[in-house]
Amino acid sequence: MRKLHGFAVSNYYNMVKFALLEKGLSFEEVQAMPSQESDYTAKSPMGKVPCLETDYGFLSETSVMLDYLEAVQPSPALVPGDAFPAAKVREVAKIIELYVELPARRHYAEIFFGEKRNETAVTEAKPVIENGLRALRQLGTFKPYICGDFTIADIVAAHTFIYAVPVCQAVYGWDIVAEVPGLAAALEATNAREAGARVMADQQTALAAFQAQKG
Ligand SMILES: N[C@@H](CCC(=O)N[C@@H](CS)C(=O)NCC(=O)O)C(=O)O
Questions:
Q1: Residue boundaries of the structural domains of the chain
Q2: Ligand 1 centre from 128 Cα, in Å?
Q3: Looking at residue 36, what is its pLDDT?
Q4: Hey, which of 7, 11, 12 would you mutate to test ligand 1's pocket, going by the most ligand atoms within 8 Å of its Cβ?
């Protein structure tokens, strides 16, 4: 039985969970926090969440896990079958990860855990996100999903914008979804899917508990 290690507050964990559910693959959820302890880095070498336990060993890095799931369970497809459109979907997903999720993440500690504002990040992150959104406007069709059919680009987007939106609103007073025509509807459709709604419900419960515990 596959086991997804991590916790439901983690947006990367939720991307992999979403794909597992969409594909109807059976899996267990194993609670794990990021850690540099050797027993965890043996599973996830960078100590990050999530990692996926398979019959053959562990995998880390979300994009790798999404590709692995596509390979072991091609149907329902979350990536087009033909090489070029498949690469375009992966291009969109990678751009969202590198140029929206990662720069927005620099503000997570402040926004979600009340830590001091990272002033360097305030200056550096915004132009990166602006470029990421411009690329998303350029590459997306939003008919109705980001790349047309529902794909991993939508999964990565849903669980990037879930945190990037409140972060950019709080730090910059900036509505990043409004920057990309069609994105709001694509995100709404993604989160309304059966798998999307389940992941979101679990995320909301876990986030409330996590914040209560952090005080
Ligand atoms: N590149 C990783 C990023 C995963 C990631 O950053 N996970 C967060 C939790 S959402 C984490 O483990 N943070 C702790 C750390 O970076 O040490 C992936 O694609 O899976």
A1: 2-72, 83-214
A2: 19
A3: 98
A4: 12
- pLDDT category at 113 given cuts 50, 70, 90 is confident
Distance of alpha carbon 21 from alpha carbon 191, whole angstroms: 13
Ligand 1 atom closest to the Cα of residue 10 is: 10
- Options 1.10.10.1100, 3.40.30.10, 3.40.50.920, 3.40.50.1000; CATH for 2-72 is 3.40.30.10
pLDDT at 214: 73
CATH number of 83-214: 1.20.1050.10
Q: Which residue has the tokens 């007073």?
A: 173
DSSP H helices, 10-151, are: 11-22, 38-41, 62-72, 83-96, 102-105, 108-113, 119-139
Would the pTM of this model clear 0.90, i.e. be above it?
yes
